[in-house]
Amino acid sequence: MLQERELKTFVDGTTNYFEIAAQQPASVGSPYLVTKGKPGVHGYTGVIKISGKREGIVYFTAPRTMLTVLLMKLKETDFSDATLCDLVGEVANTISGNARRDFGREFVISVPNVLTGDEVEIPMTRDLRPYVIPINWRSHSAKLVVALK
Amino acid sequence: MFPVKANALAQQLGRSGRLLIVDDSNIMRRHIERSQHFDDLEVVGTAANGVEAVELFKETDPDLVTMDLTMPHMDGIECIAQLVALKPTVRILVISALADKATAVEAMEKGANGFLNKPFTDRQLNEALAELLQGM
Predict the structure, then answer these.
(1) Counting Cβ atoms within 10 Å, is residue A100 exposed (0-12), middle (13-18) or buried (19+)?
(2) How many Å from the N-terminal Cα to the C-terminal Cα in chain B?
(3) Closest partner CB to A111 (pick from B24, B31, B118)
(4) Angle at the Cα of B72 (from B69 to B78), degrees rounded to 5?
(5) Structure pTM?
(6) CB-based contact (8 Å) between B30 and chain A?
(7) What is the pLDDT of residue B4?
(8) Distance between CA atoms of A142 and A135, rounded to whole angstroms?
(9) pLDDT at B63 over 50
(10) A69 CA: distance to closest CA in chain B (Å)
């Protein structure tokens, strides 16, 4: 179960990412617990497996349109599928890695595993309770999902 | 833009400084390469993991390395130790998302000279590189 201050770490990390990397703040909504069904995905999903003091996953999922604009903000000129996958993994990695400021080094993060498509199955055990942090940036919607025990 | 000149480095080395960029993200490698604004710093190679970095390091003999930490095959901490063993005078700037103090301390103990957290601005990158260059 995640505590409010722990969720705030991820909200702050997401806010910080868009402010600095995208040079344009995102509107990061209040986290909510998904009690029925699955949190869902947006086409490109970067999954970080968490081990050590905490276990679970953190994933960032976003549509192609949003990632393309984000790449432009990074002055990137390659908008291939491979680059979109690289970016979604890097965002997930950055936000998860930044969380170690509060969680400490025993919060061990994996390299990103990237999944594409709107129907992908996110590897999540049943005992994990996923919280969704909604992200609105420019006209695009994405989400960060945090499921830790 | 944040114009920075590394003329002092060039004068000291008698040639341009040589930079190796290590990060498992293609985007980050290109971003670092584009964002560094030193006139006399030549990017001599980019590597996607620690194993590649050690090989490229032997081939290109860089003066400066930017080093990610979370990478497949060989992580940044192990890679720093190997690079410093090969060339004790190399200057290494860790550029990582890992934001806890213990990781920064461990990287420094292995031989890193600076630490920059992701995400970063162009200015932050160039200031961090400038600090390392001044120490050469």
Answers:
(1) buried
(2) 24
(3) B24
(4) 50
(5) 0.91
(6) yes
(7) 47
(8) 5
(9) yes
(10) 14
- Give the C-alpha separation, B64 to B1, whole Å: 22
Q: Which residues of B touch A97 (CB under 8 A)?
A: 70, 96-99, 118
Q: Scanning the structure block, which residue is given the tokens 């090969």? A: B86
Q: Model ipTM?
A: 0.90
- Which among B123, B63, B71, B54 has a CA at the least distance from the CA of B88? B63
Mean pLDDT of A56-73: 96
- Encode pLDDT of B10-56 as tens digits: 566 666 789 999 999 999 999 999 999 888 899 999 999 999 999 99
Query: What pLDDT score was predicted for residue B50?
Result: 96
What is the distance between the alpha carbons of residues B115 and B126, in angstroms, rounded to a whole number?
A: 12
Q: Give CA–CA dist A17/A19, Å, rounded.
A: 6
**What chain B residue is nearest to A75 in terms of C-alpha separation?**
B31
Whether the bond between A134 and the residue before it is cis, its omega within 30 degrees of 0, is no
Contacts of B97 in chain A (CB under 8 A): 93-98
The conformation of residue A99, written as its DSSP 8-state character, comes to: T
Rounded Cα gap, residues A43 and A83, in angstroms? 14
Query: So what's the pLDDT on residue A59?
Result: 97
Interface of A with B (CB under 8 A): 16-17, 20-21, 23, 71, 74-76, 82-83, 86-87, 89-90, 93-101, 103-105, 107, 109-111
Residues A120-134 pLDDT 10s: 989 888 889 999 999
Interchain contact B37–A (C-beta under 8 A): no
